[in-house]
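Lab manual, section 2.4: Encoding a predicted structure.

Procedure: take the sequence of the chain (212 residues), apply the prediction step described in section 2.3, and record the output as structure tokens. A sample record is shown.
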Amino acid sequence: MPHLAEGIARFQREVFPAHANLFARLATAHRPGTLFIGCADARVVPELITQTDPGELFVVRTAGNLVPAHAPGTDGVAAGVEYAVTVLGVRDIVVCGHSACGAMTALAEGHDLTGAPGVAAWLRHADASLARTAAAGRAGDVATLVRENVAAQLANLATHPSVARALAGGEVRLHGWVFHIADGTVEELPAVATATALHTGAATATGARAAA
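Recorded output:
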């Protein structure tokens, strides 16, 4: 912990003064343009990767960058998504996976998660990702699962009413990225993959409404 206290002191002494005007504006305004949904992995820092200033990104981070499909009940991820789209009016949503993801590695390699039942339950939100990877003939391949998981989470996003409305009105765009830790590159999923994910999400949402 001492290094965190030292970091705060250095921020107040060396960093904050140079950005005092920015923070003065942010004290009374919060209008980020992008919702960034990334993994909770400590190696993946959205503001560092995108070189954005405070106030530019609204960030939601979850294990495996998972976004549960819309369902009734309390859901912190859904609340974050809804707030970003409905209240803040973000124009872009990024789902960003990354290389060497612990969550995807555990799933691809079939790790025993009996000692972490909460983690195991959470990773069920990647069942569709596993199915997509198997259908592509790449079961067990971590890199493929990382990519398919991003596409699957984009599909889940499209089931959220706030996102569905914004997409229908052309008010928001969805993007799928994969960050490669070793070389710092960011791979953007092809538009066709994103479109397929959105179509799948829309079909899922329609089916859910019909079932209700």
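Check your result against the sample. Confidence is low (pLDDT under 50) at residues 203-212.
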